[in-house]
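Our platform keeps sequence and structure together, in a single record for each protein. Because each token names a local backbone shape, the row as a whole describes the fold. One such record is reproduced below, unchanged from the form in which we store it:
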Amino acid sequence: MSMIRKNLLQLVFSGSFMKRWNDKLRPMEFFEVDKQAHKMITAWVLYSLNLDRARTASEQDALALEVIEGGIFEYLYRLVITDIKPPIFYQIRANPSHYTQLTDWVLEQLEPRLQALGGPFWERFTNACRHPDADSPGRRILEAAHLYASQWEFSLIQGVNPWDEELEEIELNFKRSLAGYQDLHGVKELIGEGMTPLKSFVHQCGQLRFQKRWSQTPRIPETSVLGHMFVVACFAYFFSLAVQACPRQRANNYFAGLFHDLPELLTRDIISPVKRSVRKIGDLIKEYEEQEVERRVFNLLEQGGYYGISNRLKYFLGLGLSSEFAVSVIQDRVPLEITRRALQEQFNRDEDDPKDGELLKVCDSLAAFIEAYTAMRNGIKSEQLQQAVFRIRQDFNQVDLGNGLHIGSLLADFD
């Protein structure tokens, strides 16, 4: 029986306020939720290229969940220790006694919110927090992805801080640390000279942090397309746990959430009223998005020989199906659209490679709802925000995802 409530969703969203590189001159504000999104996109790429480290399909699924949950665990921990600068945190972690004290306090802060996800999740979270240095494949993928995403941010501020004495040491540390992960397939391509197809793809994804959502509506906080994708991915994973999705479906729902707005890199964030305002304009926009993604993303990856990554992205984005929010499985290597009832009753099995698009649509709308709701709570009362909150309440008030996960009850928490 699901006990997911408002405070868990708001915890995930709170990374939209959390600033990074706050002691440096910045060409723009950097937020934790954007960095986490870029990190997890990079982690998915490295996971996809290192599947040979897991021999069977079930081991590959286990590795995917280790990467996903490890990323979520690190993010939640980081949200609580927000005021501790990384160099200080690493010193604390190097002292077992001090780190244990800090971790006990973090767990105390998070337990009321995370217990809703069940005992097994809480046990995995506490174990990961208490043993952060485990040298498993999933942890190494996450650490390489973390370093790469942080270095990518660093490259944006490096040129505007020429007098900062710390920068040279920070740059050398990134290079030295990333060099230790070159045994992972894909790392050399990401950190080498020149723009390889793989690096270009990850770079394009990172640029979604520059693209603000609700671009014509003032909001606090402003959220980017990149950060929104990460929030939706986390919601999708938590909801997948709540409805008892099989391991493959949990991973698919998370990664589909993480990439669901990738086409907006090419078309910008076109708000729903525009898509709905003219007959069939939504279909025209979708057709244009698919053409541009094919040209600038899939062709790029395939020219570099990354057919597996390209094909998987196409499945996550629902290409060939009615939309990215289609409920689907893979049958004879071909995506097949099914009903959600069929998914729950027949196809919630790893071997069917299921993806719950309807659950993703709910998570996407809930993330938009929290963006609008939070801006209004922070004093911005625009008509567009009020309409969005009203419309989402109306559209999802009767939606029940199963196992006690009633969206109307969840929305009622937001008074």
